[in-house]
Design a protein that fits this description.
There is one protein chain. The chain is mainly beta. Helices cover 3% and strands 42% of the residues. The protein is built from 1 helix and 30 strands. A 4-stranded antiparallel beta sheet has the order 1-30-29-28, with no helix packed on it. A 4-stranded antiparallel beta sheet has the order 2-3-4-5, with no helix packed on it. The radius of gyration is 18 Å and the shape is globular. It starts with 13 loop residues before the first helix and ends with a strand. The N terminus is likely disordered.
């Protein structure tokens, strides 16, 4: 395994990056957006932000012609806040409780703390600790159990962890190879591991598991990406934007878990990484993220039927790398980064 390389974060100045590497072994202070286990890529293979084979299907950033019904999206800063700043964490909903696991603190340190948020009362408490503290991992529910896969600390890792009733995690398996900056989604019969980086570059393998212990390859991404917004709508997984060795991409990919078919189905209006994707009212929404290294506040609506993108509103503030979970018709964007790590939570609803 290779150490974390801050040089992958092109938005940081060279002077800051060198100083941080000497002083903090690759971790970023709160005045600069914290970096995750961004893996050094030896001899990167350029990947076009907008591949030639999708040029004819590139959507515009205007509402599609009647293919979608009007949608009202409201995004407000929640009254609930975390006890401390947290970015690049993961979250799952267990009943009416949100479990926020790991991530980076405002000082750029990987945390193993798990916060429990009671949506009924708004109470936030320490729920437990992670057996293997990580940031930039992926998480989803497998049945009623939360599973956290990959991520890293100083090095990218391969551990698969399960939330137990005490609110802590236990290690239950390993990925075939180390992987960070990935996503995990629930599909019928199990979980899919999508995107992410390895010491050799983006890992295009889409992995499936039914137990969080054993993983098998079921598909390959057309464009290998890290930090992609990933979500399930119907029976299809959508992988939106992300980072490639040649820069961020606007490409939207779809995965059919039943057949392993991966397609390019559209483009964002611009390259975007580290955004959040979720489904509200049956509609696919993309919020926040980074454009040219700067956190964004825009919310976009994607129509899979024709590949069109339309503006759906704005967040109350710009944010990237937030943990996202949907519960009771509301999407919660937890923590994340603007110019520094955040402790705030955004609640998004649609009608």
């Amino acid at each position: 395994m290779a150490p974390v390389m801050n040089a992958q974060r092109t938005r940081m100045t060279l002077a800051v990056a060198v100083a941080l590497l000497v002083a903090a072994c690759g971790q970023t202070p709160p005045t600069v957006a914290p970096t995750g286990p961004s893996l050094a890529v030896a001899t990167p293979v350029p990947v076009a932000s907008t591949p030639d084979h999708v040029a004819s299907a590139t959507p515009t950033a205007t509402p599609s012609k009647g293919s979608l019904a009007p949608l009202h999206v409201a995004a407000v800063r929640s009254d609930i806040t975390l006890p401390e700043a947290r970015t690049r964490a993961v979250a799952v909903a267990v009943g009416s409780t949100l479990m926020v696991c790991g991530g980076l603190t405002g000082a750029g340190v990987t945390s193993g703390t798990i916060w429990s948020i009671d949506l009924g009362t708004g109470h936030v408490a320490k729920g437990g600790t992670m057996a293997a503290p990580v940031h930039d991992g992926g998480a989803a529910l497998l049945g009623s159990q939360g599973i956290i896969v990959g991520g890293g600390k100083v090095f990218a890792g391969s551990v698969s962890q399960r939330l137990d009733p005490s609110g802590s995690t236990i290690v239950i398996g390993k990925l075939p190879a180390v992987r960070a900056d990935l996503a995990v989604v629930s599909v019928a019969g199990g979980l899919l591991v999508v995107g992410g980086g390895t010491p050799a570059g983006p890992d295009t393998r889409v992995l499936a598991t039914t137990d969080g212990h054993a993983f098998r390859t079921v598909a390959h991404l057309r464009v290998g990406v890290r930090y992609a917004a990933t979500v399930v709508l119907g029976d299809v997984v959508y992988v939106i934007g992300g980072s490639t060795p040649s820069g961020d991409t606007s490409v939207i990919q779809s995965i059919d878990p039943r057949t392993g078919t991966v397609r390019i189905v559209g483009n964002l209006p611009h390259a975007l990484s580290e955004a959040s994707a979720f489904v509200l009212g049956g509609e696919l929404l993309i919020a926040g993220g980074r454009r040219a290294g700067r956190a964004q506040a825009g919310i976009w609506r994607f129509d899979p039927s024709d590949g069109h993108i339309s503006s759906a509103g704005r967040l109350p503030y710009a944010v990237a790398d937030a943990a996202v979970v949907v519960q009771q018709g509301t999407a919660y964007l937890i923590g994340g980064e603007s110019t520094q790590a955040l402790s705030t939570i955004i609640a998004v609803t649609a009608s």
